[in-house]
Amino acid sequence: MTVEVKSIKVICPTCRKEKGIEIPVFLVNEAADGVLKVQIPQGACCPEHSFMAFVDKKFVVRGYQNADIEFKLGGQKERVVADKKDEGLKDFSVTDMVNTIGPDICAVILRGVLVGIPVLFLDTFDLYERVAKTVMLLRDMESDDLVITGEKITRDDLKDKKVRRNNALIVVPLYKAIMRSPFQEGLNTRFESDLLNEATQLPDRTSQIVFLRKEMVKISKIIDEFIKFLKGTDKLYEEDIPAYTREKFNYKLDHKNIDVIKQIIEFKHDKKLAQKIISKSLDKIRTDLW
Ligand SMILES: [Zn+2]
Prior knowledge:
Bound molecules: zinc ion
């Protein structure tokens, strides 16, 4: 099967190295809002960095995003894909998913799970059923406390009105791309990247799944508590969030990851409540103006 591709020029946002990368034409043509988000893995453009490139309808890179997280895939050793061919749908770990789909895209998938939107995976030709295996991985992660809608779709399904209308995240695993996303550009998935990074240090699929499920249930419960708290207060300083989670829930949230709380409340629950979370410096400017 041949897929028509076009070459685009990407520049590593960290070290400025340039490289030509081939992108399937249909992915760009069918992307929502005319922007395809592609993961450029470490080694594809430069030897050290992994980043996301936003490609527009004219096959020009409109922008980049690089997570400030170094992904070290440790723990479970990756085996060559060919060895896994006969091992069934359950033989695909979080490490395999990160390697196949790309760390930044996997982080967006976790965000999709946390806000409760459907995560659809476009199936493209693959001998090793990695799309079905990804769906199976998410199914196994699901529990009573963590509802996950993960489904495999075909290219024909993309034309389906229902798929077009709903707020789904559409991922193309084998091309490391996001075709459609309901998230705004300022999405910060550093929290989810940290979780994935930790998960991949664990030795096997089951412990990785258990870890991710536990952590996602935990943060969801904490966010529910934040919502209750915000309902009874005028404002909450961003800077106070880590101390608050530590004291109230004995939960250590990196100060660089506090966006997850505000962004999830804003996306999934209540925009007005999310706006009560403000930074101290912004509040000072406001006060000074008054
Ligand atoms: Zn680089």
